[in-house]
Amino acid sequence: MPNALKIYYFSGTGNAKNVARWISEVAKEHRLSTCITDITSVPGRKPTAHAADDIVGFCAPTHGFNFPPVMMHFLLRIPRAKSEAFIVNTRAGLKMGKWFVPGLSGMAQYFYALVLKLKGYEITGMQSIDLPSNWISLHPGVKEKVADSLFLRCEKKSKQFAYKIFSGKKSLRALYDIVQDILITPISILYYFIGRYVFAKSFYADASCNNCNICMNTCPINAIKLVNKRPFWTHRCESCMHCMNSCPKRSIQTAHGYVIAILILISSVFLVRLRPYLLDVFNLKKSGLVFKSLDLVLQAIVTFTVFIITYYLFHFLLRIPVIRNIIYISSLTKYKFWRRYKIRNK
Fold it and tell me: CA-to-CA distance for 126 and 57, rounded, in angstroms?
């Protein structure tokens, strides 16, 4: 019988952390020694070995229908063991009227369950928890009343999952969504190679920023630095939304207009000119698998390069009043109706 529970989590706004806490509460009822670890606090993010009588859990949000890269890389470094293991991903839960609407997981469960299985772990739990979405770059934060109802429902669901696995049973409910999750797997791959860099280079601090440095000092992975005395988001950003949702001045914004403009520039200029060159140089057919693979790599390289370069220019242009006002107007997060997500520690 297992004697100890070890949960590794990554959390930007507290959702995954809360799930880890709820599960640990049930573990204590079962008299298990419990240890909850934020993976960003692990030296070198290199996990230690586990005993055969450990239950090891991994809990993280879903970013682009996958685990955040920081959790992905942590999981891939897990040492081999004969321990039991479970995976929990928090998804973008919503509520429409009286109906709770679940999110989507994509690769967030299956790939890592396979990795753990190949490393000798016995998978006893796979569960998705639909806590409120905090990706306010894409949509306003949910209303507080809705968030509270989602939290109550998800706490109950998390504990039901924990009671089952700590009673020696398996709970693999995430497998129920396998069809739709496999269908959206290509999106998760695109997000890993392209999308996450676009998000990382869409944040900026507006004129209300008072240089308190809270965003920089509390960033879970130290992805924010000062450039010209202003916060600057590096490519390491996980888009966990911690900075945007914890800024006391609501100074951190998403530059929607800038992102759309650069994506149009990439698709209409760079890729239009580079694709014919790719066909000629490698003598490829446009419908061939090799061309499609190279085209995906090309898109990733061009998108990453253009956003890295133009973000420095964007950061500089914020000094010019006319351009700064245009950027503000085209940033949806700047408007009061675009609610922030209230970080909860329950």
Answer: 10
In sequence order, the 6+-apart residues with CB closer than 8 A to the CB of 274 are 298, 302
- DSSP H/E element including 124: strand 122-129
Question: Would the CA dihedral through 220, 300, 192, 15 be positive or negative?
Answer: positive
What tokens were used for 171? 């709970």
Domains of the chain from N-terminus onward? 4-181 (3.40.50.360), 189-334 (3.30.70.20)
**pLDDT digit string, tens, across residues 248-303:** 999 999 999 999 999 888 888 776 777 677 667 766 666 667 667 777 777 778 88
In a 10 Å sphere around its CB, with 0-12 CB exposed, 13-18 middle and 19+ buried, how is residue 48 labelled? Answer: exposed
pLDDT digits (tens, 9 = 90+) for 178-222: 899 999 988 898 888 888 888 888 999 999 999 999 999 999 999
**Sheet of strand 122-129: strand arrangement:** 33-38, 4-9, 54-61, 84-90, 122-129
Residue 34 region by backbone torsions, left for phi larger than 0, else alpha for psi between -120 and 50, else beta: beta
pTM for this model (two decimals): 0.88
HSE at residue 298, side-chain half, CA atoms within 13 A, is 18
Distance, in Å, from the CA atom of 325 to the CA atom of 290, rounded to the nearest integer, reads: 44
Count of C-beta atoms within a 10 Å radius of residue 310:
17
